[in-house]
Write a structure and sequence with these properties.
two-stranded antiparallel ribbon, about 150 residues, globular, mainly alpha
Length: about 150
């Protein structure tokens, strides 16, 4: 269904008097409960379709995919975050700097460079320091509880 909608969007088609792009944006699942158990090949296709269609409105699918257990889903998702220059994906890419696979670590570095346009930061430590200085990863610990 997504592939057909991508094709229709490319043709600037309409469905029920609405642009195919609107239907495409609604076709992507957005819940981690739905996305998590998906076949990794299907999830990889979704990330690539979002990149191909430049569909920023479905970026949450990609952000979740960058944390997926399957390396190919993580790879496709990181490439999409970079291609769409998703600044909201910076913390996700920084998190992948500690990925168990060196190839994903390298891809996370290049994704951060693509999103930010910075070529001066070249190591995971530099990016982590950069992100720490900007609090882009959020608080390190839970806020204190009120008595």
């Amino acid at each position: 269904r997504v592939a057909a909608l991508v094709a229709l969007d490319r043709l600037s088609a309409t469905i029920d008097n609405a642009p195919a792009r609107e239907r495409l944006a609604r076709a992507f699942p957005t819940s981690a409960d739905i996305l998590g158990p998906l076949n990794p090949g299907y999830y990889t296709f979704l990330a690539e379709a979002i990149r191909e269609a430049r569909l920023s409105s479905a970026i949450e699918v990609v952000r979740l995919g960058a944390r997926h257990r399957d390396r190919f889903v993580r790879e496709a998702s990181l490439r999409t975050l970079g291609a769409l220059q998703d600044t909201g994906g910076i913390p996700v890419a920084v998190g992948r700097l500690d990925d168990p696979l060196p190839a994903i670590q390298r891809l996370a570095l290049s994704t951060l460079q693509e999103i930010t346009g910075s070529r001066t930061l070249t190591t995971p430590e530099q990016w982590k320091d950069w992100c720490e200085a900007r609090a882009c990863r959020g608080p390190r610990a839970a806020p204190p509880q009120e008595p």
